[in-house]
Each structure stands twice: as C-alpha cells, then as structure tokens.
Amino acid sequence: MKDRSLRSRAVTLPARALIALARHLPYRLRLALGSALLRGAVALVPRLRSRVENNLRLIFPEMPAGERRRIRRAMADNFGRTFTEILSNPSFHGRGYWIAPEPGPGTEAILRAAREGSGAVLVTGHFGQWEAGRAWMKSSGIACAGVYRPLDEPELNAIYLENLEFGGTPIFPKSRRGVRGIVAHVARGGIVAILTDQFERRGATLDFIGHPAPTALVPAELAFRSKLPLVPIYGIRQPDGLHVRVVVEPPIPHSTVPEMMQAVNDSLAARVRAHPGQYYWLHRRWVKSFAPPR
C-alpha cells in the first residue's frame, strides 16, 4: 500500500504542478502548451506512436505514410488542446469559443426536451472538442449530464471530475452504478450526453469505419425503451485552433436497438472521414492488440 501511495505521488505531483503552471499562463499559450506536450509525447513514445499508426493502417490501408504522419500530428494537437480546455473548463466557458449550432431537427429536439422536461440522449465520440456541446447547452440554460471514465490516480481524477462538473451535472461514472444513475436521470426528464466510441468487450459487434468494433448498446437501448430522441452532437475544431463549431444532427429514427446504434456509429464515422485529424486515434477501438507493423 505504501509503495502504491509513493508511485501515485510520483505521478500526480508533476501533473498537478503542470496543471497549476498552466492555469497561470495566458489562455492561448496554455492551449499551445497542451498541444506541444501531446505532440511531443506521441512523437517520442513508441507505444503511443505505434498505436496511432496501427489504427490508421487498419482503417486507411492505402493512405501514404506522409498523410498518416500529418494526421498523427493533427490528432495530438487537437487532443492536447481539448484536454487542456477540459482541465480549465471555467476559462473555456468564460471565453465562449464555441459556435452555436444551426437551427434544425436535432437542435429543436434538444431545446424541446429542455423546455418540456421530457428527456433526451445525446451521442458523440472522442472527436474534435467533445465537451463543446455541453458548453453551448449550459450557456443556453440547459442542464446536460455527462458520463466519464474515472482516471486511475485519485488526485488527478478529482481535478478532472471537478472540471467536467463545471460543464453540467450530474456526471456519471462509466460503470453499472453509473448506468443506473443515467436511467434514473432521463426518467426524471433529464438530458445526458454519452461518448459511444470506446471498446466494449461485452458489447455488440457493429461496423465502425468499415471494421467490426465492439459497441455498447446502452445509448440506443435507453432512447428506445424510454421513447426519447437519440441525437448525435459534435464539436468541430476550427482552423484557428480556438473556436469550435457545435453541430447537431437530426435525431436517429427509432427502429431496433442494434440498428439505432449502428446509425450512431455511422454518424461518427462520417465525421471522422471528413476530419481524420480530429479523431482520437490512440483508442484501441477495434482490437485490443495488433500484430507488429511490417
């Protein structure tokens, strides 16, 4: 137990110091630092670099090596900025760098659910700035719950959770207890946003960008059983690296749970194909292990 505490402190102290330092930097410099750190890590750590490379080779087998390198750098830049924004959520919210979505069926479904207290399930992925949608909703007076995977280090997790809660509450852990909380929340007429693109060992095998990907059915089950709108929502980072355009797609039609969840995957896949540098290619989304590249 003592050794574990020492290891935890060895990890958390530098990270906490870096977070404290970043909070004292001008906002744009803070984001640039986050970008530089992630770009450096992905470029210099073989395990991270090979994970991105393997994912890109799997999905885009004909892509030239130079284009894969460009996407890898763009991914690291976007994720570095996004994670920095999340860890300084009050600053992100205070500057209002998101661009509100255009009027349309999806936006109206969210506004109606908030107005009537009828509930809605929003789906997105680790793409672009995935907290921008909740930031837009909070600025519009709409409470939107979230779901997160707790970090291994308790002190860092506390900082992470505190900033997520700034964007809207409640925040549910990704667990059986969390699922029960989500069900109760939407039953009371709440809105929840769920990231759907993580490997789910006990999930259904659905297609994602042309390859089988174990996928949790919970978002579609929740919407189907409770007769709620299932609405894809994305935050697409703009070329200046600061602004994020919130895009809300029309609600996914109710059919069967697997068909609805396949439509969720297809929606995200189209966004990834359009902006591959904004997807988080570090996820082991399709398989948990790869053969070494030839």
Task: Write up this protein.
Helix content is 53%, strand content 15%. It is α/β, with parallel strands linked by helices and 294 residues long. A 7-stranded mixed beta sheet has the order 1-9-8-2-5-3-4, sandwiched between helices. Helix 2 crosses helix 4. It is built from 11 helices and 9 strands. It has helices spanning 2-23, 27-44, 46-59, 65-87, 89-95, 105-116, 132-139, 154-166, 176-187, 218-226, 257-274, and strands at 98-99, 120-124, 144-148, 171-173, 191-195, 204-208, 211-215, 230-237, 244-248. The termini are far apart. The chain folds into 2 domains: 12-91, no CATH class; 99-278, no CATH class. The model is unreliable at 290-294 (pLDDT under 50). Strand 3 (144-148), helix 8 (154-166) and strand 4 form a beta-alpha-beta unit. It is globular, with a radius of gyration of 19 Å.
